[in-house]
Structure formats: C-alpha cells, structure tokens
Amino acid sequence: MTDKIADAVARRRTFAIISHPDAGKTTLTEKLLLFGGAIQLAGEVKAKKNRVQTRSDWMNIERERGISVVTSVMTFEYGDHVFNLLDTPGHEDFADDTYRTLTAVDSAIMVIDAAKGIEPRTLKLFEVCRLRDIPIVTFVNKLDRESRDPFEILDEIEQKLALDTAPITWPIGRGKSFVGTYNLANDTMRRSDDDVEPTAVNGPESDAVAGLLPENEREMLVEEMLLGKEACRPFDMQAFREGHLTPVYFGSALRNFGVRDLIEALGNFGPAPRAQEADSRRVEATEEKMTSFVFKIQANMDPNHRDRIAFVRVCSGKLQRGMKAKLVRTGKPISLSAPQFFFAKSRITADEAFAGDVVGIPNHGTLRIGDTLTEGEELLFRGVPNFAPEILRRVRLGDAMKAKKLKEALQQMAEEGVVQLFTPEDGSPAIVGVVGALQLDVLKERLKVEYSLPVDFEMARFSVCRWISSEEPGEVDRFITAHRGDIARDLDDDPVFLAPHEFGLNYEADRWKAVRFATVKDYQ
Ligand code: GDP
User: Fold this and answer.
1) For residue 249, how far is its CA from the centre of ligand 1 (angstroms)?
2) How far apart are CA 465 and CA 421, in angstroms?
3) DSSP for 233-302, written as a single string
4) Which has fewest Cβ within 10 Å: 142, 171, 419, 491?
5) Residue 295 CA to its chain's centroid (Å)
C-alpha cells in the first residue's frame, strides 16, 4: 500500500441521505454543498425540482411531475475530508434504484422531521441500511417549527427502529425560540451555522446559553438540556460502526442550524471506505490495485451526447484516467479514457479517484449494473441486488416489423436497470417487470423518444415472479420441464418462475420443497 492511497482513503466519506419525502433532504443537501463550497448559492439543488435543467431535459416525465427520477453523485470537501454524497430518487416507485445506490455507500444520514418523527419511507430505507449494517447519523430537522420534545423523538427512534441513540447536540430552545445547538459531549455551542467554530460555554445554565432563552421557557429548557447531558447514552464508536447506535443531531436545514455539527460528525465518526467482499476474497480499500463495481447506469445525462454513464464505486487502489481495466464479466479490456467527477451542476474529467469515490464512465452499452472492473484480477463483487418486480406487463408494439429493434431497446433498458426483462421459454412476447408504475411511464417515454418505438403495456397473466434455484442437482431442470409455460429467463439467462398470484406460488413452493423461490437476486 502506498501512503498516498492510504491517505486518500482515510479522508473519504461516501454517504447517502435517507428520509421520508418533505423531511428536508433537498434543503440539507443544498446546505452541505454550500458549506462544502461545491455550489455558490443555496437554491441550486432545489431548482431542479421546479425548473428545467440540462441534466434532465430529456425526461419529460420528470418535468411534468416535478420529481427527480435520477440518482446522481455530488462531491465536496469540508475540513480535511472529501465527501461523496450519493443522491437517491425521492419517489418510492424508483426504490430499486435507491437500494442499489445504498450498496455503494459507507454511511448514511437519516433526516427526521421533528414534528413527524419516523415516517414510513424512513423506516423502509432504514431497514435496507440495517441489512448491510450501514452506520447512521441522525439529523432531526425543522426544530425552528413547532416540534416534539427531543426525548420523545429519541424514544421513537429507539422503539421503532430498535436502534440505540446518543444525542451529541441538543436544541437550545424550539420553534420560535430555537437559537442554537448545544454540544452535550464537550460543552460548546453554535448560535447558527454562521459560526464556523463552536464556542466553549460553561454548561446549559450559563448566561451564554440560558440567557438566550425566553424567560417563561428558560427553566424548563435548561432542565431538559441538563437531563439530556445526564441521562442519555454516551456515544460509542464501535456500536455506531456496527450499526447498533446512532449519534443524533438537532437543527434546521432551512434556517442554518446544526448542519455544521452534522457534517463534522460525519467526518469525525463516519467510516472511511470499507473493505468490500468479492466472490474470491475480501478487498481492502487501501490495496494498490484498482477494483470497482457499477451500481448505476444513467442514459442521456447530456442530450447532446447520446452516451450512457456507468457510475462506478472505486473499492480499492487508484482509478486513473487512461488506464485499461478488465471487465470481469466478459474478460475484455475497457479503456477508461474519460472518467468523470460530478458536482451539483457540472462534471469534470477525473484524473484519479480512490476507494470511496464514485466516477462516471461514459460508454455505449459495454457496462451493466453489477459489473466489476479490475486491473486484471479475476474477481467479482457481489451484492448489487435485483428485486423481484411487483408489476409485470407484456409490451405491445403497434408495428410488428420493429420487433427486433424493440428487443434490442428492451435489452438496453434492462441493462441500465430501468426495468427488468424476462424472456418466456415458450417464445411468447417479452415481459417487463418493475417495482413501481412510474418506471413503466419512463420506459414508454424513452422507447418513444430515443428509439421511435411507440408501445403499450398489456396485463400479463402473471403477477408474481421469483428466481428459482436448488441445492439438488437436476431439480431446477425438472421444475422447468414441468412448468414450461410459466418459465422465463432474465438478462443473465437465469430462470424465473412466473405465477398468476401468491397463492399459485405458495402452492408450487409446497410441492417442490427442494426448489428455492427467491425475491432478491444479486447481479452476476
Ligand atoms: P425533501 O422532500 O426531503 O427533499 O424536502 P425539502 O428539502 O424539499 O423540504 C420540504 C419542505 O420543508 C420545503 O418547503 C422546505 O423549505 C421545508 N424545510 C426544509 N427544512 C426545513 C427546516 O429546517 N425548517 C422549516 N421550517 N422548513 C424546512
């Protein structure tokens, strides 16, 4: 390992923000980028929602519905650290995209609305993080508004998520009298995020703190802070890193409270890029040779260039511009001539990237989700998941002459992770599967705009899809032979069983005990 690589790895923090819509993810992102110097003015991220941006010009759907359906990465520096923030789509119809993105982060910020507590989507995303033991830093947002008692919020996190909490800061006041954040661990405070450095104070009762609070609430709020200091669990680094405990920060992204506390926490406590499990061995982030995997493909980021960008997370070594990597799935070399870094609005050519960094690699369909790149080693990263679709449809094409073109287009869409594609064994037309209905709208729009293929979707006679496998040799073949009309192949030629409903699936699962019916499949 060279010092340069070790040093670069130690500085990196790669994370995502998980939250329920409206909790303040966009506002927080904006502030992080602003304090990190990545954007000039707050408001640029928000603008994405409201007005047309180059990046998403092509996507009328996004424009019409005012939702961001794409995942992107933003890099910024703060203090000694380099942060890679992987953005995830807010809409739950694109949940599979979010899950794949979470495979590429080392930690997450969970944003909670101080008035609403844990909401359904936060819970769901938290569960995905827990599956991977991703350490979570909690930001309780909107303290400038009418909000719940901090103890109640901490209790709700502990109860609903079965996650220990350690409040590091405490709000000084709430609602209209919210005037700053108090660090319980080291007795410092910030009046707002304008304070680059926190100020040392003499406890919550001191004039510097208590004196800021309205007289009628002072006693109650000071007591609360003292109790917070006294009674709350102390921060435990190991428990945090193992995903059992979350440090909690209070603030207001909109009014500039608590964001610096939060970003410093991520820098100080957040893990540097982790070691990554591959099929043959564990790859340490500080190894010299480059390894990386593709977790996201995005097409048409720039309408002038019909390129596809594969987002790769570097897992070890140094990814250098111009290097030749091996695409392990095919065994072929791929030249990384123009890897790119992304900022809020712009992208620049990346000369070198280290573990934890995410770079975009322009390509014309060579790279697929789940692909591993190495400097020659035969090694595959596992764990970019494929989820059994919730909705299955047949694609109906008006013009039968274009069937071949449709097949190619669907194959490409499937490689990008827009939809899943299943080819029935009995030769009937292809079936597409999605987890949310909006994905079908995206598919339809893209087939029309990019491939001039107007299509419609028909209900398939199936509604359930499971990957089949078995420990017993020959069992899968026997099952396939017995169910020929209900078997299809996915993009990797792996067999899936299509059932009309859950009942039908359970019936078969009862009869074929040696066959496994999986709802999740790792790529590769
Ligand atoms: P997202 O859907 O999670 O990305 O949430 P947004 O960042 O778009 O915020 C949703 C709404 O809450 C917007 O109207 C924001 O201005 C508002 N908001 C975000 N943070 C705060 C905050 O700290 N205080 C208050 N009062 N409003 C906030």
Assistant:
1) 17
2) 11
3) PPP-HHHHHTTSEEEEEE-BTTTTBSHHHHHHHHHHHSPPSPPEEBSS-EEPTT-SS-EEEEEEEEE-SB
4) 491
5) 10
Average pLDDT, the chain: 88
Q: How would residue 294 be classed by pLDDT, with cut points 50, 70 and 90?
A: very high
CA of 254 to the centre of ligand 1 (A): 7
Where does ligand 1 bind, in terms of residues with CB under 6 Å? 19, 21-27, 90, 141-142, 144-145, 252-255
For the stretch 274-293, pLDDT in tens is: 999 999 999 999 999 999 99
Burial of 322 (0-12, 13-18, 19+ CB in 10 A): exposed
For residue 30, which atom of ligand 1 is closest to its CA? 7
Whether pLDDT at 87 is above 50: yes
Q: What is the pTM of this model?
A: 0.86
User: Region 101-123: what's the mean pLDDT?
Assistant: 95
Which residues does 169 contact at the CB level (< 8 Å), separation at least 6? 181, 182, 183, 184, 248, 249, 250, 251, 258, 261
Q: Measured between alpha carbons, how far is 472 from 474 in angstroms, rounded to an integer?
A: 6
- pLDDT greater than 50 at residue 49: no
| Cα–Cα nearest to 83, from 265, 208, 217 | 265
Higher pLDDT, 418 or 333: 333
In the chain, what is the straight-line distance between the N-terminal and C-terminal CA atoms, in Å?
Answer: 29
Asked whether residue 21 is marked as a ligand-binding residue, the answer is: yes
